[in-house]
UniProtKB/TrEMBL annotation:
It comes from Teladorsagia circumcincta (Brown stomach worm). This is Serine carboxypeptidase. One of its GO terms (molecular function) is serine-type carboxypeptidase activity. InterPro entries: AB_hydrolase_fold, Peptidase_S10, Ser_caboxypep_his_AS. GO terms for biological process: proteolysis. Signal peptide: none annotated. Belongs to the peptidase S10 family. Pfam families: Peptidase_S10 (PF00450).
Length: 83
């Protein structure tokens, strides 16, 4: 899993997407939104066992900026649950 805050000026999510392209991974489904507590959390793309996640409104320190969203994406990844 790779995750980025969409407001991160240190490691921007555009370069994360470019990196995934260099790996040659194929998306299982198109980019989709996910919600945490009924609020938009960001978007995710599933590449099989690999996930690319963008967190809405988070900067470089996603767990500090959006702790509930960070916990959600980590639990979803670790326990193989739907985003």
């Amino acid at each position: 899993m790779m995750y980025y805050g969409d407001a991160d000026v240190v490691c921007n999510y555009f370069n994360g997407k470019k990196f995934i392209q260099t790996l040659g991974l194929k998306a299982v489904a198109p980019e989709r939104p996910f919600y945490v507590g009924g609020q938009p959390g960001g978007t995710y793309t599933n590449y099989g066992r690999f996930h690319y996640v963008t967190v809405k409104g988070a900067g470089h320190m996603v767990p500090t900026d959006k702790p509930a969203v960070a916990a959600h994406i980590l639990a979803s990844f670790l326990f193989d649950k739907k985003f």
